[in-house]
Amino acid sequence: MMVKLTLAELADITNGEIIGDPTVTVSAVAPMNKAKEGDITFLSNPKYAQHLGLCQASVIMVKASHQSLCPKNVLVVNDPYVAFAKVAQALDTTPAPASGIAASAVVAEDAVLGSNVSIGANSVIESGAVLGDNVVIGAGCFIGQHAEIGDNTRLWANVSVYHRVVIGSDCLVQSGTVIGSDGFGYANEKGEWIKIPQLGSVRIGNRVEVGASTTIDRGTLDDTVIEDNVILDNQMQIAHNVHIGYGTAMAGGTIIAGSTTIGKYCVIGGASVINGHIEIADGVTITGMAMVMRSISEKGVYSSGIPLQPNKEWRKTAARVLRIEDMHKRLKAVEQQLEQQVES
Predict the structure, then answer these.
(1) pLDDT digit string, tens, across residues 31-71
(2) Count of domains in the chain?
(3) Residue 209: C-alpha distances to residues 138, 154, 249 (Å)
(4) Domain region containing 61
(5) Could you report how far apart the first and last alpha carbons of the chain are, in Å?
(6) Whom does it interact with, and what assembly results (predicted)?
């Protein structure tokens, strides 16, 4: 179903200032170079400002400094990218993961369902589970015993939520994600692995989004905790007893080992690996493919890894890295010789 909004309505959504016809309507957001009549677009990177005069969109969202470059209807906003996000939400036509309760859904008699709950085909809601108002459970999901899911939270198809997991309100969990699986806990007795039951759970706050095929393990004794307003990308591994602070964002493929604490408002680049039993301070940015082996006590930007090189150069670099220990010994020998000469 197509959504149409007037420029006046868009101004209310973005708290923007109208320049032009407030009755003009838009139904889609488009890139500036492909936008046409009926679209709205935005300028967030000033280097593209030179193209504003050729833009065919019905409405363009810009900062005040670029308003004079636009050919017709303009929405002047403080941050065009944030305005784009709000307008995109208002025009979003993504279907709900489920509508109503499917005949093939299996819901335990003592499960507690709030008002206006939807449960998709072949989903299972086990004994003692609690679903808040307006919760949407997609097809093929599993909600374990005594799990709790807060108001307005949506789960896409084939999400597994284990027993006693708690998910807050207004969350979004993408397909294939597993929340509350066992952490990697074993003791070794004379070469034989003895499984340690994972007796904690997972507690996820409000307004948290979890990408597709991400795994969040339950704690060994205490809980794994994801605080409010955290966003987690696809195909991540969050191990047992990890604690992620408010407002942190983590990109795809990141792996966090057990019992690590990550502070508030951190940004973790994709494919990063974070060691266990360490602490990362608030406001830390870790660039992609970093390997974090020790605690970080001060906010800032941190990086590791070898940037891409032509293969011939990389082979030389790798060969030199393998000789670091030998080079260190030779350097120490030279230093000792110099010290002896100075002393004599």
Answers:
(1) 999 999 999 999 999 988 988 999 999 999 999 999 999 98
(2) 3
(3) 15, 10, 10
(4) 5-91
(5) 89
(6) Homotrimer.
